[in-house]
Amino acid sequence: EVQLQASGGGLVQPGGSLRLSCAASGYAFKNFAMSWLRQTQGKGLERVADIMNDDKTAYVDSAKGRFTISRDNGKSTLYLQMNNLKPEDTAMYYCTTPFGSWGQGTLVTVSS
User: Fold this and answer.
1) Three-state SS across the chain?
2) Contacts of 92-95 spanning 24+ positions with Cβ under 8 A
3) What percent of the chain has pLDDT over 70?
4) pLDDT above 90: residue 80
5) What are the backbone dihedrals phi and psi of residue 82, each rounded to the nearest 5 degrees, phi first?
6) Among 11, 28, 70, 71, whose CB has the most other CB atoms within 10 angstroms?
7) What is the mean pLDDT of the chain?
8) What is the largest CA-CA distance in the chain?
9) Alpha-carbon Rg of the chain, whole angstroms?
């Protein structure tokens, strides 16, 4: 059974940083791309960042220069380092696999 356990969200002031983690199990993590998506009431669902199994990365324009996606295949864990956070980054963040599995999400709130 594929399981994705996201963590690391919280309340942070504008300009602050958070590091999200996603612990994966039940499949060969190193063989697959992974993604972070986020969902807000206003903008709906948005793909934030992708990382391929060869470590190539891609980002939504609003995340470029501020967010970094990475992976540790030895720990089967996906990360999202988020710097210079803005109120518009407030969302539920999910890690996902290319075959449709989702974690439970971790809430990021950026507010003063």
Assistant:
1) CCEEEEECCEEECCCCCEEEEEEEECCCHHHCCEEEEEEECCCEEEEEEEECCCCCEEECHHHCCCEEEEEECCCCEEEEEECCCCHHHCEEEEEECCCCCECCCEEEEECC
2) 92/38, 92/39, 92/40, 93/6, 93/9, 93/20, 93/36, 93/37, 93/38, 93/48, 94/6, 94/36, 94/37, 94/38, 94/39, 95/4, 95/6, 95/20, 95/22, 95/24, 95/34, 95/35, 95/36, 95/37
3) 100
4) yes
5) -120, 115
6) 71
7) 96
8) 41
9) 13
Alpha-carbon distance 61 to 64, whole Å? 5
- Residue 46, both tokens: 């948005």
The contacts of residue 42 (CB under 8 Å, 6+ apart) are none
What value does the mean pLDDT take over residues 75-95? 97
Confidence of residue 95 (pLDDT cuts 50, 70, 90): very high
pLDDT above 90: residue 97: yes
